[in-house]
Recover the amino acids of this structure.
């Protein structure tokens, strides 16, 4: 208990003794962290060709392959989609992309026009019930990438933080405080 | 200097770095160490219908499938997603691919799949976007998507060619009675 008390008072003292010069320095440090995270993300986008190279599974429609909370890595190549591949697609007017398997492909000759039908491994019906009204096929423009790798459980953190926004703000607050009070 | 927070921070950073390295190495064994020798064959057992649908021709086919995929399993394999797919070329589309049957295999001991006259599985259909299935040659392909516990996925397949749809439309007197296999262990209506 004493240890925690002294910890808090340490942080408080550090905060109280901040002068304008070290405040600026810490601010710059924070900016550096944020921008380098942004650089890493944008570089990933550049090299994977996918607008969101890392996604978290939010539903059980691909169980037992992918569970809620798994992290998936996407790659968007110029190769056309073929059946059996797991693709991530975004429907017009929807916020959340869907990760399902291509089960039917019709590709026209030169124009490269492609019609794709998808289905979740754990669903008994194909995805026409999910598509927008009147939509029968996915096209090239809907596809955001193919799943090339997975990392189980780790995405659970983001799911918890999204389910409990207060926890998210608390975490950001605490981390922010540490950035400002740490002296390195 | 060496407050508990610093120690905790470096422990966490170091721990996750080691864990990430182990994950990458584990996935690498699938590609560098693991050798597989799958034995696969598939052929049409009976084409039960070729007919006109509202948007193009459709066909109904049962297949004979024999696939021994047990050697594909490694210590990092969570499951194999096995699918049988028919592919053909029509005037409208130079590539048509339609999955007609799938299975999820989570157990190495059950990775030798043998089916005679395997009926098409619900909700898969074999169809074209034009009226050109009659007399068209087609291939049958068995694909298995190897899904790991951690790391990279990969897909392998074997194709068999030399098959042809019948040259005339035909269907059984009561097409509604065409035998269809319900997918096992799935909850109907559970979407997303």
């Amino acid at each position: 208990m004493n240890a925690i008390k002294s910890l808090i008072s340490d942080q408080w003292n550090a905060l109280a003794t901040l002068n304008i010069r070290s405040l600026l320095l810490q601010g710059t440090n924070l900016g550096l962290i944020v921008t380098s995270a942004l650089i890493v993300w944008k570089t990933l986008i550049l090299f994977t060709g996918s607008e969101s190279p890392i996604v978290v599974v939010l539903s059980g429609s691909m169980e037992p392959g992918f569970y809620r909370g798994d992290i998936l890595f996407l790659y968007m190549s110029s190769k056309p989609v073929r059946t059996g591949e797991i693709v991530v697609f975004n429907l017009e007017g929807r916020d959340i992309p869907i990760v399902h398997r291509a089960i039917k492909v019709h590709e026209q000759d030169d124009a490269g026009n492609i019609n794709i039908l998808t289905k979740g491994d754990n669903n008994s019906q194909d995805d026409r019930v999910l598509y927008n009204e009147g939509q029968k096929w996915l096209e090239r423009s809907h596809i955001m990438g193919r799943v090339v790798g997975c990392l189980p459980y780790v995405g659970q953190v983001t799911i918890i933080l999204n389910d409990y926004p207060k926890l998210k703000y608390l975490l950001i607050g605490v981390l922010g405080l540490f950035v400002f009070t740490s002296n390195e | 200097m060496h407050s508990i927070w610093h120690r905790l921070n470096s422990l966490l950073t170091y721990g996750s770095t080691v864990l990430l390295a182990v994950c990458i190495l584990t996935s690498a064994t699938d590609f560098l160490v693991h050798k597989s020798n799958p034995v696969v064959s598939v052929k049409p057992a009976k084409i039960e219908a070729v007919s006109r649908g509202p948007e193009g021709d459709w066909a109904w086919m049962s297949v004979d499938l024999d696939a021994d995929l047990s050697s594909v399993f490694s210590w990092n394999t969570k499951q194999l997603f096995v699918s049988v797919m028919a592919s053909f070329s029509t005037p409208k589309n130079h590539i048509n691919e339609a999955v007609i049957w799938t299975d999820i295999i989570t157990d190495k001991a059950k990775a030798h799949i043998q089916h005679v006259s395997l009926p098409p599985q619900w909700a898969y259909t074999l169809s074209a976007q034009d009226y050109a299935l009659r007399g068209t040659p087609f291939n049958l392909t068995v694909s298995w998507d190897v899904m790991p516990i951690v790391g990279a996925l990969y897909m392998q397949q074997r194709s068999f060619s030399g098959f042809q749809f019948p040259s005339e439309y035909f269907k059984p007197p009561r097409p509604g009675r065409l035998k269809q296999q319900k997918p096992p262990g799935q909850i109907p209506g559970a979407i997303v």
